[in-house]
Amino acid sequence: MSPAGALGRPRIHLRVTDSTNERAKDLAARGAPHGTLVTTSQQTAGRGRQGRRWSAPAGSSLLMSLVLHSPPTLLPLASALAVSDVAGPEALIKWPNDIVVRQREDGTLGKLAGILVEGRPQAGWAVLGIGLNVAVDLDELPVELRPGSREPDARPAASMGRDPSEVEPLLRELLAALEARLAAGDEQVLEDWRSRDALLGREVSWSEGSGQAAGIDGLGRLVVELPGGGHTALGAGEVHLRGLG
After folding, report:
1. How would you write the chain as a 3-class SS string?
2. pTM over 0.70
């Protein structure tokens, strides 16, 4: 278990960088200590899961990556809970670790934050990348990310609607929340994650099939009830809501 207050020291802040995850991975490969933090005001090549680009106007978002030694197995779930703790009670988690909020009465989900975990298990470290839309003007985003977009690749974003001056205080809150969540046991993480499950009971699809989301199992895998009976557990990959974003 990491010592209390270990996350965020040392810290490297870059006015502009390609990707905080890339910088943090470089540091980790050179022996950076547990808790090393990389932050930036602007990313030119920020990435999300499945290789998607993470877009955020300069100075509008919390953009960070942490070096973690001996990371817990449920790191993606625990980190999603920490971001949700900071984002507020309306924040939900779209498996495994996209932070979303409901934007309309039809249940459309807007992405408030994304998490990307990369690492080198054989070397005992991982990099936890987080992007949180703190003060994003949604009209400044690419059209496919704007709420209500009819673009074929529409992926509506959401924002906390806060002032840019609040990015730094929210970073301190998030580091404290991460300390607490990473120190919690697996059972607590699973229980709390289930209370914020955005997919529960909803129709989902993936590359090999479709069904109804039925929560997560003890390994953090998404359980899906299949149309013909039975169920399957998904351990990785892209899951899409059917009919709603």
Report:
1. CCCCCCCCCCEEEEEEECCHHHHHHHHHHCCCCCCCEEEEEEECCCECHHHCECCCCCCCEEEEEEEEECCCCCHHHHHHHHHHHHHCCCCEEECCCEEEEECCCCCCEEEEEEEEEEEEHHHCEEEEEEEEECCCCHHHCCHHHCCCCCCCCCCCECCCCCCHHHHHHHHHHHHHHHHHHHHCCHHHHHHHHHCCECCCCCEEEECCEEEEEEEECCCCCEEEECCCCCEEEECCCCCEECCCC
2. yes
